[in-house]
């Protein structure tokens, strides 16, 4: 049985001293453990590092990597770096936004899919590339994107 989120956050913070340069590592650890950084814990995180709530909130919102809400069941990351852009990543991203009905950094209304940009997956020679729940796919056309999403929808119950 998973420990309650309160305990996970408290235990995670306890692993870090109160030095302010430990804020980012602590936020990463919390997101790794919980899946996101619960807004209800921002005050406690701020107290732990002797920072204001606004300062911690500012850090969380500055970095797109950090989430304040539970992650979608399926995270789609589309590479937006140069090699992929030259091979159609902009068209692919626009297609993904239309197909899923959400923009970059957004998620579908039912929480099933999140769409995120990523900057180089090391597959530049096989671009455009994307990941779906961390599985990597190369040479993705809009039609292949649709097939991948259909496959995820049927096999992973998203
Ligand atoms: S630029 Fe997209 S994988 Fe490298």
Task: Give an overview in words.
With 158 residues, the chain is an alpha+beta fold. The chain folds into 2 domains: 58 residues, Orthogonal Bundle (Arc Repressor Mutant, subunit A), CATH 1.10.10; 82 residues, 3-Layer(aba) Sandwich (Glutaredoxin). Helices cover 44% and strands 13% of the residues. It contains 7 helices and 5 strands. A 5-stranded mixed beta sheet has the order 2-3-1-4-5, covered by helices on one side. Strand 2 and strand 3 form a beta hairpin. Helix 1 packs antiparallel against helix 2 and helix 3 crosses helix 4. The protein is elongated, with a radius of gyration of 18 Å. It starts with a helix and ends with a helix. The relative contact order is 0.12. The site of FE2/S2 (inorganic) cluster has 12 residues, from helix 5.
